[in-house]
Amino acid sequence: MENLRFSVDVDAPAQHVWNVMLDLDTYREWTGAFHEGSTYEGGWNEGDEIRFLGPNDDGTASGLFGTIVENRPHEFVSIRYLGDIENDVENREGPAVGLHESYSFSETDGVTTLVVELAVPDEWADDMRGMWSEAIVTIKRLAERA
After folding, report:
1. 115's torsion region: left (phi>0), alpha (psi -120 to 50) or beta?
2. Would you give the DSSP letter of residue 27?
């Protein structure tokens, strides 16, 4: 298991960065770094189940699903993964089970530091490093555009 951490300073208030990251329309933009056409189903409130999905060529979807463990609006959100989805079928026994991911937003003088932390299986680490490095820069760009 490898713990990954990504951080970026965004010239925008925390509430705006939060909205860019979690609102469905902008979520679809920055998650292109993971899979073109990515989306989510569910909600971001504590206890909500959420499914992160990307389309497959055959019309099915694959991704991860989990539960929102903690949500402090405009400050922090934490996800615990319950499994993965392959071709529309949930798997509650794969390597994603029990993984955690969190997003922290801290604002000082109108600049928000966004920190993404996640634990991933070693075999996912290189891919996740590359995808999250691109995604966090895209979030910054989207949040700072006029």
Report:
1. beta
2. H
Place of tokens 């909500």: 48
Residue pair 12/24 in contact by the 8 Å Cβ criterion = no
Q: Is the pLDDT of residue 114 over 70?
A: yes
Question: Which are the contacts of 122, defined by CB distance < 8 A and separation ≥ 6?
Answer: 1, 2
Handedness of CA 37, 59, 50, 126 (dihedral sign): negative
pLDDT for 57 beyond 60: yes
For the packed helices 14-22 and 122-144, what is the interaxial angle rounded to 10 degrees?
Answer: 120
Q: How far is CA 8 from CA 54, 114, 140, in A?
A: 25, 5, 7
pLDDT digits (tens, 9 = 90+) for 61-109: 999 999 999 999 999 999 999 999 999 999 999 899 999 999 999 999 9
